[in-house]
Design brief:
Strand content: 5-15%
Bound molecules: ligand F0G
Largest sheet: 6 strands, mixed
Distance between the termini: 46 Å
Order of helices and strands: HEHEHEHEHEHEHHEHEHHEHHEHH
Helix content: 40-55%
Structural class: alpha/beta
Number of strands: 10
Length: 358
């Protein structure tokens, strides 16, 4: 393309994925083969309606913009790169869906075998389709996510041949912390509040780590309050005990015994934030609000962050970021349950004009 193509600063438009872009903060070396699908640099969308309601500047970090449609890609690029460096041929994970989709994609890119354990009947259709089409070995278990994770931990402990790529794998957290870097790099300031859904609690751990690293390096000069939200039927951290039978419409966060429980509590306490519960009805209300008022379609679990903001008072004029962790198309069944599907209309000009009232 001609130099004067009219596009700004073409060099800067090349994005190499989060590991290369934030290499200085990544545990990689010259021998690490970087397995990337160009994840990261997701939109940070200003939300005018929410901003007006909360008398604040509210932004949505839309992680549905990642290659497999969720934030998991940020951590998976590094976890799979390190597994490749260590010569691993097989990766395994337990998942409520998004981790399995991401693991399947990056493992396939690296030429590895990927096995995923998912709870039968509680995985959104889009996520199941992804894991299958990328070629993972998918095992639906007659149990929930917590039970799947127990089995995966055991597999990891008993076999040198498999690498576990759940967020108990520290590389996942290292990759996911880049979300915090991007927010600061894009906004030019640190948000006063960071709203985030909490399931297995890896992401809140990762964001807090990212914010702290920029602060310690002197790149930023403040830290946000970490505001975590669990679904009320799956809120072990809020309740202070394991939930044996977690239930929520937000299947992505249907977790009763989060692996990063202690780290989430630390993030909350060190930042002066909160971890609270939101009802399914509040999650769905926020989910519809985001689509109709802010034109952003996320999956139900993602809307937990905004459901949390809806019922939390923030300082007037403050900067607020809500992470929307996954794309709306991940869970078409919930989307369709929230609307009335239109009847078919005759294929004539007259019928359509009548429908439109013109
Ligand atoms: N939002 C979405 C869309 C998720 O898929 C998850 C977790 C979370 C929020 C919560 O993040 O676990 O780091 O606290 N999904 C995992 C999975 C458990 O298997 O895909 P977390």
């Amino acid at each position: 393309m001609a130099e004067n193509s009219g596009r700004p600063d073409r060099e800067r438009m090349v994005w190499r994925g989060v590991v290369e872009e934030y290499r200085r903060f990544m545990p990689v070396n010259d021998k690490t083969p970087i397995v990337t699908l160009g994840e990261g640099r997701t939109p940070l969308i200003y939300a005018p309606v929410l901003s007006s309601i909360k008398s604040a500047k509210v932004y949505l970090k839309y992680e549905g913009g990642n290659p497999t449609g969720s934030f998991k890609d940020r951590g998976m690029t590094l976890a799979i790169s390190k597994a490749a460096e260590e010569g691993s041929q097989t990766v395994v994970c337990a998942s409520t869906g998004n981790t399995s989709a991401s693991a399947a994609a990056y493992a396939s890119k690296a030429g590895m075998t990927c096995a995923v354990l998912i709870p039968e009947g509680y995985i959104a259709l889009g996520k199941l389709a992804q894991a299958l089409i990328y070629g993972a070995k998918v095992m639906q278990i007659k149990g929930n996510f917590d039970q799947a994770l127990e089995i995966v931990r055991e597999l990891g402990e008993n076999s040198e041949k498999v690498t576990v790529v759940n967020s108990i794998n520290p590389y996942r957290i290292e990759g996911q912390k880049t979300g915090a870097f991007e927010i600061i790099d894009t906004l030019g300031v640190v948000p006063d509040y960071h709203f985030i859904p909490v399931g297995n609690a890896g992401n809140i751990t990762a964001y807090w780590k990212g914010y702290q690293e920029y602060y310690k390096e002197g790149i930023s000069s403040s830290l946000p309050k970490m505001m975590g939200f669990q679904a009320a039927g799956a809120a072990p951290i809020v309740l202070g005990h394991v939930v044996e039978r977690p239930e929520t419409v937000a299947t992505a966060i249907r977790i009763g015994n989060p692996a990063s429980w202690d780290n989430a509590v630390r993030a909350r306490d060190e930042s002066g934030g909160v971890i609270r519960a939101v009802e399914d009805s509040e999650i769905l209300e926020a989910y519809r609000f985001l689509a109709t008022k802010e034109s952003v379609f996320c999956e139900p679990a993602s809307a937990a962050s905004v459901a949390g903001l809806m019922k939390t008072e923030v300082k007037p004029g403050s900067v607020v970021v809500c992470v929307l962790t996954g794309h709306g198309l991940k869970d078409p069944d919930v989307a369709i349950s929230q609307i009335s599907v239109p009847e078919a209309v005759d294929a004539t000009y007259e019928a359509i004009s009548k429908e439109l009232g013109i």
